[in-house]
Amino acid sequence: MFDCSAEFNKFYRTEVVLPETEQNELREKRKLNIKRLKEGLIEYEADKGKKYRVAEDRIQGSMAMHTTVQNDKNDYDIDVGIVFESSNLNDLGPLATRNMVADALERKTKQFAQAPEVKTSCVRLKYVSKGYHVDFAVFKRYKENLEDNDYIYEHSGAEWSIRDLKALEEWFNEEIKNKGDGLRKVIRLSKMFCKSRESWKNMPSGLIQTVLCDENFVTDYSRLDELFYYTMQAIVNRISNSADVAAPVDNGRALVTREIDYQRMNNWKNRLEFKLKELDILFEPNCTHNEAIKAWNKFFNHSYWANLESTIVSESFSISKSQRFTNTEEFIEDLYPVYEQYDVTIDCKVTGNGFSSMPILHYLDTYAPRFKRFIPYNFSVKCRIGYTNCPSYDKILWKVLNVGAEAERRNDVRGQIQNRGKEITENSKFFGPHYIECYLIKNGICVAIGHVDVPIGVE
Fold first, then answer.
1. Does pLDDT of 371 surpass 60?
2. Does a structural domain hold residue 217?
């Protein structure tokens, strides 16, 4: 198979993986709307004279599993598990419970273009202008015996049904541990393919893609382009034999049950099979680099490959030009399995130029408008762990990334992930929308990610 691994890896990192700044925006949206729900429930309780407090909230889905991909329409799905004590619900039915959640949310989201939507499996809150939507999956919990250590969870669907709240993400984390992060990369690339044409309606869910990518993951190759190609080929064969898919948890519940589900599976198989045939040129002994780029462009239908094809044709592409700086950035998922199950914030304070130490947001809100919301040069930036609901962790890792043309010109993008203890101090040196991230590591897993933007400019 023609080696396009350099271009393929760059496509994955720059066009498929959601940038850290956007990932953090989704985290903030999740936390904001959980806060809105809790505040709305307080009002709801006052009206109804009953108590419906949230016992647990949990990150779920692609955000927890770290498989969210870039999408031109910003159709990001933020999955949240909301848990109530069964005893507090007083035999409230599943639909009535979801209606209660929707009512509480609506009290605090009247500025939204659409009211919260009560669906069969969740309550959906849409950011119409942004394209985000937050899905609140609703659960209740109880113990059969007071001395039991673990709760039993039931999901609010068409009826209450026993569901393990944590099992899916924990299953996925174990698969990544056993098979390597190449599996996560193949899943992201599969999602990117399924969203590659606006006309492609009715494609399978991210969960179904995750399950089949895991089931058919080919481990005989080291290059990402080969891992992806052969896994997709195996999926075509698998669906040809059977379109049924069972969840790897919850007693193997069926994920493909309705006629529309089977149609989605058939669409995936047919479209994937057709586009894989267009990659046959990669196996020709005389395949050229230009032909290989064209083939991947036909497969992914993405501007990255189209632009790469154009630069090759015009012969304006220069390796030395494209690598004018050393990209030293590291990514946490390449170092540790990521299972975001907790929140963490960074307490970031700045001082300098006659200003005493203060939180960065206070400085930006109060003093920075005349600086266009930038921190000037020669400020000290001190960061430490702020709030976290993680009960314990083994170590804290830090990443400081310099972003922008000036960082590249100076060949100083940094971005290495390092163990620097509980507190770090940096200095604002040059212009750019830089940021700092922290990672909480527990039992060899990254369980929480914190992020703070550090915009630096000049007066």
1. no
2. yes
